[in-house]
Amino acid sequence: MATLEQEQSERKTLKSLMDQLIAIDPNQPVRADVLGKELSFESGLPVFQQTLGLFNDLAQCSLDSVPFETLHS
Q: Which of 2, 4, 35, 41 stands the most exposed, by the fewest C-beta atoms within 10 Å?
């Protein structure tokens, strides 16, 4: 069983990672002007936006009731 300090540490780590993820501009990897149309990531943009949207939604939720084992995994 995890201590309160371990749970708080896991929540802080997860929050930091989510903050980094939601700070990503989903258009950044596209770069069709540099990579060309065939090598750009433009076709994957909707999936990337959706994935980042999920992380953004999760970042808005309270993690206080999430068990340590789930936070840790």
A: 4
